[in-house]
Design goal:
The protein is 13% helix and 23% strand. It is α+β, with helices and mostly antiparallel strands. Belongs to the E.coli NlpD/Haemophilus LppB family.
């Protein structure tokens, strides 16, 4: 049977379509894997990975923690405050502890607060009260049971000077008395610019505004026992390491870091605040 030309063309077209459909089905491309940020699982940034702990480095002076004559730095401390609380100048503390930058000390750091070689550093010896025969009896605390220990030498505390006669540092009236918990000195009223005078001969161990709550502050060291502090000044007239005489004008009264014009005056005995009124002549 002969097919017409038209029929043949139609038949061939149908065959061609079938072949194309088969090929299309056999070679359909695989699905595309989404590798964009949307399609892949999130990756944690490098900084979010837990850091490997570094070997802990002991803080300076840690081997002296708890020993007599040493102090462990607390939060908020600086050398000026540590010195004031222990009857020392900050420069001495920096020198004794080889601190190159006095503005950088760390919480937990242990600093020497007594001069090298001072009696208080004697370890293992407790000095008992003087007995009736006038001899103090040291107690060796690090002796091992059953061992013979050579008696430690008697430690005689250095005599404490009590003979300083302090003068009033300002002429105004006392507006707030001493309170060991709330006010560590006397507050003396006056006018801005009134003279602030050295209460006794001494050396300036601090002059500045680096101690919070004191404003412009001068600290004088009079001997190994006593310091005096003069706070809230409007102007300081002395420099550190300068020697002054009793009655010298060292500052002008002001209200720096205070609610009114006044002089806050402290007497520190071996770093501990004591009532200045007990050292000043009655008015």
């Amino acid at each position: 049977m002969k097919l017409s030309n038209r029929t043949c063309k139609v038949w061939l077209s149908l065959v061609g379509l079938a072949v194309l459909a088969a090929c299309s089905t056999a070679h359909r491309p695989a699905p595309v894997e989404d590798r964009s940020a949307q399609g892949k699982a999130p990756t944690a940034p490098m900084s979010a990975a837990p850091a490997q702990p570094e070997a802990s480095k002991p803080l300076p002076g840690a081997e002296n923690a708890g020993k007599p004559g040493y102090y462990t730095v607390q939060r908020g401390d600086n050398l000026t405050r540590i010195g004031l609380d222990h009857g020392q100048g900050w420069r001495d503390l920096a020198r004794w502890n080889n601190i190159a930058n006095p503005d950088v000390i760390e919480v937990g750091q242990v600093v020497r607060v007594t001069p090298p070689g001072s009696a208080v550093e004697s370890t293992g010896v407790v000095v008992r009260p003087v007995a009736q025969n006038g001899q103090s009896t040291p107690q060796q605390t690090n002796a091992q049971p059953g061992t013979s220990v050579k008696p430690a030498p008697v430690v005689t505390p250095a005599p404490v000077s009590e003979d300083i006669a302090f003068a009033w540092p300002a002429s105004g009236s006392v507006i707030a008395g001493f309170d060991e918990a709330k006010n560590k000195g006397l507050d003396i009223g006056g006018k801005a610019g009134d003279a602030v005078l050295a209460a006794a001969d001494g050396q300036v161990v601090y002059a500045g505004a680096g101690l919070r709550g004191y404003g412009n502050l001068v600290i004088l060291k009079h001997n190994s026992t006593y310091l005096t502090a003069y706070a809230h000044n409007q102007k300081l007239l002395v420099k550190e390491d300068q020697k002054v005489r009793k009655g010298d004008k060292i500052a002008e009264m002001g209200n720096s870091d205070a609610d009114r014009v006044k002089l806050h005056f402290e007497v520190r005995r071996q770093g501990k605040p004591v009532d200045p009124a007990k050292f000043l002549a009655a008015r």
